[in-house]
Amino acid sequence: MRNRLGDRPHSGIRFVLTALRRGVSRRCPHCGIGPLFSGWAHHVERCPSCGLVYERNPGDTWLFTIAGDRLPVAVAIVLVYFGFARSHRAMGLAVFIAMIALLVWTSPNRWGVGIALHYLSRVFWPDPADPVPEDR
Ligand SMILES: [Zn+2]
User: Fold this and answer.
1) Which of 37, 55, 84, 124 is the most exposed place for a label (fewest CB within 10 A)?
2) Using one digit for the tens of pLDDT, what is the confidence trace for 16-50?
3) What is the distance between the alpha carbons of residues 77 and 87, in angstroms, rounded to a whole number?
4) Looking at the whole model, is its pTM more than 0.70?
5) How far, in Å, from the CA of 86 to the mean position of ligand 1?
6) C-alpha of residue 93 to centroid of ligand 1, in Å
7) d(CA 49, ligand 1 centre) in Å
8) What is the rounded CA–CA span in Å between residue 115 and residue 60?
9) How far apart are CA 77 and CA 71, in angstroms?
10) In which band, very low, low, confident or very high, does the pLDDT at 136 lie, cut at 50, 70 and 90?
11) Do residues 44 and 102 touch, judged by C-beta distance below 8 A?
12) What is the pLDDT of residues 53-68, one digit of tens each?
């Protein structure tokens, strides 16, 4: 069975990297034009430019959200638990605050990567009932 990538001039790793770059930029992974969020982190239902539905069913991006969002938080917790930068109290506190700020600040970018990974899974394993728009 031929997937949608077989019909694209930029198939393969370049296509994947483009979708991920668009996701990290909080743009539609399909066209790169429409925003993924309105405001800081309010999820938009579909791309206003190409019509791609970002999350067809609630929870579709759950796995990718876990990988991109919860794992960095788990790493931060493990670092704090094992005493990273504990020898200097002020330094440890500064690192801890910087990690929390970085995690919060990059949340929409990581969620965008999760939406892009979900989009890629839909392109690689197409579902006839899936509303992924065709290339223009
Ligand atoms: Zn789009």
Assistant:
1) 124
2) 999 999 999 999 999 999 999 988 777 888 999 99
3) 17
4) yes
5) 46
6) 41
7) 5
8) 9
9) 10
10) low
11) no
12) 998 888 888 888 888 7
